[in-house]
Amino acid sequence: MTSNNPQVVNLTQLTIPQLDGLRENIDADIEYLTHSFEQLEIALKKLQNSLNSVEYLGKIKAESQMAMVPLTQSLYVNGEIKLPTKLIIDIGTGYYIEKDVKEAKDYFKRKMDFISRQLDKFKPALNDKISLKKGIEDVIQMKIQAILSLQKQPTSPQNKEIHAK
């Protein structure tokens, strides 16, 4: 049976190679969390842009309106919005749903709230990993300084006799 409780390890009892391996693992975790955090921020910005577009479409009163339609992030074509009260929303993985303007706004706001909560969860985890990495680096420095100070100590007269034999 596995336990969900993290195992507590005294860093000062680990060797420098063990600490270095642990630091590399923490670096990988930090990189993963940072990448995930950035991806969530990008998704949040895209949802905000979609919400802004829906709000703009909600203000259109005419039956037909000319618009620039994005095919990619950098390629747009002329298009005509026939009925701005009904929108087709991309909900991911190739699925689309039809919503009116109010429902579309609610959908994007819910998604943005969800992603914001996820971002809030990542911040403490990322800060904890960064603090742990700093602690590991401090212990490594302490151990290196201890080794260097031992190497600089002059040998006692008894040690000189032993080395001379």
Structural notes for this entry:
The chain is α+β, with helices and mostly antiparallel strands and 165 residues long. It has a single domain (15-142), classed as Helix Hairpins, CATH 1.10.287. It is 63% helix and 15% strand. It is built from 3 helices and 4 strands. Strands 1-2 form a two-stranded antiparallel ribbon. The model has no long low-confidence stretch (mean pLDDT 86).
Which properties best describe this structure?
two-stranded antiparallel ribbon, 3 helices, alpha+beta, 4 strands
Summarize the structure in short.
With 165 residues, this protein is α+β, with helices and mostly antiparallel strands. The protein has helices spanning 16-59, 101-152, 157-164; strands at residues 65-70, 76-81, 86-92, 95-100. It is built from 3 helices and 4 strands.
Chart the SSEs and their pairings.
Elements: H1 16-59, E1 65-70, E2 76-81, E3 86-92, E4 95-100, H2 101-152, H3 157-164
Antiparallel strand pairs: 1-2, 3-4
In total, how many beta strands? Answer: 4
The rough form would be described as rod-shaped
Structural class: alpha+beta
Helix and strand run? HEEEEHH
CATH class category name: Mainly Alpha
Radius of gyration: 29 Å
Number of domains: 1
Most strands sheet? 2 strands, antiparallel
Q: Strands of the largest sheet, in order across it?
A: 1-2
Low-confidence parts: none
Stated plainly, the CATH topology is called: Helix Hairpins
Distance between the termini: 58 Å
* Number of helical regions: 3
Classify the helix fraction into a percent range.
55-70%
